[in-house]
Amino acid sequence: MAFMFVVVMPNMSLRTTAEADSNVNKLAADVRAVFDTAVLLGKPHRMVFNLMSGEYWVEASDRSDFFMGNEKSPRDLTEEEERDEIEGFDQVFKEYEDLAGEAIADSGDDKEIPASSPVILAKEKLRKPKWHRVTSLEWRNRSVGPVLIFKGIQAEHHSGIQSFVELGDRARAMIYFFPSGYAEKAVLYLSFRKGDFDFDEKIAPYRLVVDSYTGTAEVSSSTEEVDINADDRS
């Protein structure tokens, strides 16, 4: 039995590492593929990551003028929170329309001139875009598991790293890609899974750094944090 343990365990470790390498390389290739797809189709795309499950998928929008998110916010919205914001936008915006005042009657042709303001004129630009999941066979759900787990993800539209340890089931991160050939700079930290919600610190983790101008994701085993706001091309 001791002999079997000595022979089998190293082989299991090699298989686990090989599977992890394969999943990380697929993730890096997917990042570049989404970058290319956004340019080819002329639509913004985003990769959405469920940090707890290790799953990720691709979504697209017909809107090109939108805010990615509040940089000061500690996390991205959950799917439910994002849906509630979209559905409740008109009701919330009505407060600004009421502040603008009443419509003014035009004495010349008895028509009413609606009240206006810079905020009201920008209503459609302030409206959050609707995203739909890309469901083609090429972009069905992916996963880095069961071997790996996302330890944390940071992107330009956030000031810090989003971690499932801190956020729990609300740990949902996004990286945006634009038709102009620009990817949001981002860093993804992946570790080997130890149990359902723990990391195996004995095995070297992975780090993927997304380059904004090429859409490539550089893979390394470094744990060093990256200055997400630094412009490497300056």
Question: What does this molecule look like?
Answer:
There is one protein chain. The protein has 234 residues and is α+β, with helices and mostly antiparallel strands. Helices cover 31% and strands 23% of the residues. It has six helices and twelve strands. Strands 1, 2, 5, 6, 8 and 9 form a six-stranded antiparallel beta sheet that branches. The protein has a four-stranded antiparallel beta sheet with strand order 7-10-11-12, covered by helices on one side. A two-stranded antiparallel sheet has the order 3-4. A hairpin with a 6-residue loop joins strand 3 and strand 4 (112-113). The chain is elongated and about 85 Å long.
Short description:
The chain is an alpha+beta fold. 31% of the residues lie in helices and 23% in strands.
